[in-house]
Amino acid sequence: MTGRATAGRRLIRWLTTPLPQPPPALRRGPLRPGVFGSRLRSTRLAGQLGVALGLTFGVCFLTGLLSHLMQHPPAGFAWPSRPIGFYRFTQGLHVVTGLASAPLLGAKLWSVYPRLFTWPPVRSIAHAAERAAVGVLVAAALFQVVGGVLNITRWYTPMPFFFTAGHYWVGWLAIGALLVHVGVRLPVTRAALTRSAMSARPGGLSRRGLLTGVAAATGLLTLTTAGQTLRPLSGLALFAPRRPGTGPQGLPVNKTADNAGVRALALNPSYRLTVIGPTRHTDLDLDGLHAMTQHTAELPIACVEGWSATGRWTGVRLRDLVALVGVDPTRATVVAESLETGGRYRTSIVAAPHVRDPLTLVALRLNGEPLHLDHGYPARLIAPNRPGVLQTKWLTSITVREES
Amino acid sequence: MRIVLVIAGVALIVYAAAGAVTDPDVAVGGVLLFLAGVLAVHDIVWMATVLAVGAAITRLVAARHQTVARATAISAATITFVAFPLVLGFGRSPGNPSVLPLPYGRNLALVLLGIAAVTVLIGWRGGREKLKGPAPGINDPRRGSAQEGTPDGGRRRHSWAGCQRRR
């Protein structure tokens, strides 16, 4: 026990032993003392911006993780089909808070920029590790915000990696580096936040002015983008990459039939939807699908990119199709397959809660018209509380599995 | 508490690194390149620009209007950052008019003009109130006077020193 304590002390001493100072002649340019003179910068300002960023990054991380879990459910992760608009809400929030992070991050990095030029650059091994962790945090935070903006504006060329996977793993990296940063800075920040609150010093007004400016920028950005998911704000959405009412039949499209290479197959008069059960299967042509009981549901298409729009979908209940091949629809999962010949989202799994849900449809009509080709004609899946990319279009088969 | 945060954070960093390396969808080299790229562009190009704008405001704008001018610059920079890829429009898709459907260049010009108009209005009102007597808040005359000393006596000015106050 004593030996271990001694080893621990030795380790701490080794980590915190001052390293030799670099020659003062190297202290040039921004490394010189007093170069950054703005009195706006303070630990309190950095702390306040940090708290706000912690909130937006936390919300972004949780809502992003939720979407990842819904799209790649690990064993035992059950996802309900209600509330209908829950996925829509979380992903709208993900993008709103992600965008709100942009001015906060900009101001935060400005407020701590002189620390990049600390002298000596490295005081000890522990100091070097702390600085490296801050570097990881800053790079990961910029990666998430810049990459996120490029993604919602669909400009992928500057990103030499598959966005979804990169954004996911760097999200973990950012949260990890953030926890380290909070752990290191907690006492200093806490002291700065409480001390200055009691004694306003000259120049405090400008800090408030700066925070007001950042808040105004955040508000303006939110007002001019949130309309891509909040219908009442759509008139103000000057910078929304999507408009809820813009697109064929009043709904935006992510992947067109031509992008997916399915035009000929989808328009082929010999189209059939095959429903495959454990013991038998059945083929339905469009007339056959229309001959079944039709149901109408108001459901959103909600994209992970933060836009969403509600449509009035009409078609056949998925549970009715499941029953057609002799499976109890309250205990079934479904694999929906598209006419597409490739692509990450060619098939999707419909979990039991969504199969059971009477609002889950194989839709044939949208807003009173036959489905537009780009919305998945002849037939598409539409289910409540489900990511848009999993609402499989141009359905060719439905494979029903009985849950044990 | 602090040690728990640090250990949990390091564990998540390790998890992220291991996950990225083992995920067949992740091109690790591409991710690292983009991490380094955004860091370098921000810390060198972007910060130099921000500090230069700050220096310009310090020199060109009267002290009592500086808070408003800075707030304006922050809003304009934020909006431009998000609108920039939309205005460039590389994300447009020929067969899909529902993607990037708006005239973003015109919208950006409109919003920047709006921000400028609000700034001028606030500045003008601030100026009028100033004539009636000192008002609290954005007109605080103490704001522009504070300055930390620099070793070169303030002769040299650098782009990274842009947020220094008027000497």
TrEMBL record, chain A:
Family annotation (InterPro entries): OxRdtase_Mopterin-bd_dom, OxRdtase_Mopterin-bd_sf
Record Gene3D superfamilies: Oxidoreductase, molybdopterin-binding domain
Keywords: Membrane, Transmembrane, Transmembrane helix
Keyword Cell wall biogenesis/degradation: no
Domain of life assignment: Bacteria
Oxidoreductase molybdopterin-binding domain location: 270-403
Membrane-crossing residue ranges in chain numbering: 49-69, 89-111, 132-156, 168-188, 209-227
CDD domains the UniProt entry points to: SO_family_Moco
Protein name per its UniProtKB record: Molybdopterin-dependent oxidoreductase
Native species: Actinoplanes flavus
TrEMBL record, chain B:
Biased composition, class Basic residues, residue ranges: 155-167
Domain of life: Bacteria
Record's keyword terms, sorted: Membrane, Transmembrane, Transmembrane helix
Segments traversing the membrane: 29-56, 68-88, 108-124
Region (Disordered): 132-167
Protein's name according to its UniProt entry: Uncharacterized protein
